[in-house]
Design brief:
By secondary structure, the protein is of the alpha/beta class. It folds into two domains: about 1-175, HUPs (Rossmann fold, 3-Layer(aba) Sandwich), CATH 3.40.50; about 185-275, 2-Layer Sandwich (Pantoate--beta-alanine Ligase, Chain: A,domain 2). The protein has helices spanning about 5-20, 35-45, 75-85, 95-100, 115-120, 125-140, 150-165, 195-200, 200-215, 220-235, and strands at about 1-5, 25-30, 50-55, 90, 145, 170-175, 240-245, 260-270, 270-280. The mean pLDDT is about 95. It binds pantoate. Pantoate binds near residues 30, 58, 128, 132 and 153. The site of pantoate has 10 residues, from β2 and α6.
């Protein structure tokens, strides 16, 4: 595996690969890799000639009161996972290499951001879209891999690729789950044993809400209220949001048809857990 830190060097490598008609699978990450990242890397390895992964904690996507400095980092561990999963090029630039001059141009995401996690993180998705625009120009991937657990990020990337005409195929990989349905996340280690026992309620609630939506004839506001009340009665979790929206537009559902996302965020003590399910509703089969 080659480690590259210089952005232009990486661009030179990808340009050469593209000339040779090689397919490039790209997995952008901020490091501190876990099983969810492994699933992305495995899919990229299966579907492409060459796999490039970036490990870069992007300051642009952190707000002034967010945890940029304490964001977990363990490059030696990430390198080991990259080797195990067959990564060909590991891109690990410094902040100075990625942003050598004060920025005069940024990408601003105008829609899909004022809901779910975006509501409490103003500017976050602008930072994500800006760094991805840079990364896409450097890596020139054929396929780019994201986890469905960060469904709002996937929706934003969907818009970025479509509206900026990037010739890149977006591959969204299913969330990796524990036996009780809890989505795997590095944040789960912050749960106490009692909270861990309770945390399966996120996926259970999403699944029950999906059943109600499939049945049809449901009042969305009532459904939301019932789900939030049952989570807060049955566990110590405090619901931050429980939303039912169209996907990937992330707009209000007016009709129970098409692609729908049910998304949830729950605070358990020191851990804020998020999860979602995305599925098709077909009103002709009801
Ligand atoms: O999901 C992440 O880890 C980051 O938001 C990403 C896509 C690598 C951009 O910095």
């Amino acid at each position: 595996m080659n480690i590259v830190t210089n952005p232009l060097k990486l661009q030179e490598i990808s340009t050469r690969l593209k000339k040779d008609q090689v397919t490039i699978g790209f997995v952008p990450t901020m490091g501190y890799l876990h099983e969810g990242h492994r699933a992305l890397l495995k899919a990229a390895r299966d579907q492409n000639d060459i796999v490039i992964m970036s490990v870069f904690v992007n300051p642009l996507q952190f707000g002034p009161n967010e945890d940029l400095d304490s964001y977990p980092r363990d490059f030696e561990h990430d390198k080991q996972i990259a080797i195990e999963e067959g990564v060909d090029y590991l891109f690990h630039p410094s902040v100075e290499e990625m942003y050598p001059v004060p920025m005069s141009v940024r990408v601003k995401v105008e829609r899909r951001t004022n809901c779910l996690c975006g509501r409490s993180r103003p500017g976050h998705f602008d930072g994500v879209a800006t760094v991805l625009t840079k990364l896409f120009h450097l890596v020139q991937p054929t396929n780019v891999y994201f986890g469905k657990k960060d469904a709002q990020q996937v929706a934003v990337v969907h818009g970025l690729l479509e509206e900026f005409h990037f010739p890149i195929n977006l591959v969204a990989i299913n969330t990796v789950r524990e036996e009780d349905g809890l989505a795997k996340s590095s944040r789960n280690i912050r749960l106490t044993p009692k909270e861990r026992d309770e945390a399966g309620i996120l996926y259970k609630s999403l699944s029950l809400a999906r059943i109600e939506l499939i049945k049809g004839n449901v009042n969305l506001a009532e459904l939301k209220k019932t789900v939030i009340a049952s989570i807060e009665n049955e566990s110590s979790g405090k619901v931050d949001y429980f939303e039912i929206l169209t996907y990937p537009q992330l707009e209000t559902v007016n009709e129970l048809t098409g692609t729908i996302i049910i998304a949830i965020a729950v605070q358990f003590g020191k851990a804020r857990l998020i999860d979602n399910i995305i599925f098709e509703l077909d009103n002709t089969s009801r």
